[in-house]
Amino acid sequence: MNSAPVRAIDPFGLRASSALRGVLFGTAASINNLRKDIDGGQYNSFIKKNYHVIEPENDFKPMKLWRGINNYSWIDCDWLLGSTPNSTGWAQQNGMQIRGHTLVWAQDKYTPDWLLKQESSLSSDKVKLLLSDYIHAVVGRYRSKVLWWDVVNEAVEDSKNNSRPFNLRDCFWYRKLGQDFVKYAFMFAHQADPQAQLYYNDYNNEDMGSKSSRVLELIKWVRSQGATIHGVGMQWHIRISRTVNPGDQHYQNAQRLIDNDFDFMVTELDVAIPINAGNPRDPNDLERQGRLYRALLKYALHFSPRCRALITWGFTDRYSWVPAFYNNTEGAALPSDSNYQLKPAYMQMQEELARVLPDGIYRLAPKSQPDKCLSTYVNGNVSRVQLESGGCNSAHQKWNISWLDNGTYRLSSQNANASALTAYNVTAKTGGVQTNNWSSNVNQEWVLSSYGNNVFRFRPRNAWWRVFALHDTSNVGIVDFVQNDALRWILTKV
Ligand code: XIL
């Protein structure tokens, strides 16, 4: 017997299912890789199938774009977005939203060398002008093509207490402009593109520690100065030892941002695990990692729409910054492996996204005969599931639908004598349905897919190519999937 867990198979990918749930999925990507359509097309096709949002990993950073005063290197970003207001690039042509990262990276090691070299000869007024020039040039060039900008990245220092306001880092911008550099950056970005959503982004600001409190004070101050700021990016570069649960510090921190009227999102998620020669030291870590990815997704869904997106810092272990960051002792941090094979992390997220319906009591009417409903009839050994007409208000015409936390749902009849909707002969030409006592059998676990407007289809968990449908005008059962109204059910909450 193969004891591997049976998993829901979603032919649509994360892109479609995440959109249904209201949280956009995104990934960091390299424009150069997109452009070269590397790895036999696998890189681009994985992105198109799974993501709505691309965040270029390095291409929008000042070190890449800003070559000197009035000297910019647009070539890659133009390819992605088009070089003029009316032209398009790969992003628009492929229905991708863009997250721009980052206008100001408040660390000297990520500030252009040519700028640092002039530090002693530049006056503060001149530096303010340069900041304005740069932000207007970049944000203005791609006006209305970038949905979100990280305006300032990593400005707050981790250490306990330095003497600077908000525990800001000692960096070029601070030395020249004081704390005002943060405010100016947001003001200039808003002037350059009033529609863009503007974020402050950082790491280690996910929990209720001193850093996230300082970040909150900083962004409240920016807003109090009259600048526009919409939200906070939390990077979430984490390790396998992290735990994330409803009500914990991470949830409290997110709620605290919302209470202060800020949006937020997960901007750079990866989950590092100990590796040896590139492979996980403990294979069980892959399942643990999967559960952690799923916990993050639940957190994002919990706070939707104030949590706008969930973005991972890449999607294949083939291209990830993590091993280099940890000197090759940790890695394997992303949802697919170095051959683009889906890891438990991907499957766990996809299962969680399959939760398309809130738990509750429902009536089920066939789309083709909306005046009828699915009902139960039980008498001794006879257990029937059939269609009935009439008001559909009796208990035997109602179903308690509940999420099983494994990608599937259980449907329990409200008929006192009946129990859970159960499929049988699922692979026969016409399989059947009846009600049976709940026994955690796979034939009692149903995968739902949404067509929108309260219309759904159901399939048995272990037969993804089959579907629960009318197989003639009055009988229901399990048949091969064919795209027609016979498999569409209108679910109405009672
Ligand atoms: C990293 C990139 O992934 C690397 O390729 C690059 O060499 C350095 O930067 N926080 C951030 C990201 O805000 O920009 C960083 O990205 C990872 C940490």
From TrEMBL:
Catalytic activity from the UniProt record: Endohydrolysis of (1->4)-beta-D-xylosidic linkages in xylans
- Give the molecular function GO annotations: endo-1,4-beta-xylanase activity
Q: Identify the residues that the record assigns to the GH10 domain, covering every copy.
A: 14-352
Q: Which InterPro entries match?
A: GH, GH10, GH10_dom, Ricin_B-like_lectins
Q: What is its EC number?
A: 3.2.1.8
Keyword Protein biosynthesis on this protein? Answer: no
Q: Which domain of life is it from?
A: Eukaryota
A Pfam family of this chain:
Glyco_hydro_10
What UniProt keywords are attached to this protein's entry? Carbohydrate metabolism, Glycosidase, Hydrolase, Polysaccharide degradation, Signal, Xylan degradation
One Gene Ontology term from the biological process aspect of the record: xylan catabolic process
Q: Which PANTHER family does the record match to this protein?
A: BETA-XYLANASE, GLYCOSYL HYDROLASE
* Family, as annotated: Belongs to the glycosyl hydrolase 10 (cellulase F) family.
The name on file for this protein is endo-1,4-beta-xylanase
Q: Which source organism does the UniProt entry give?
A: Adineta steineri
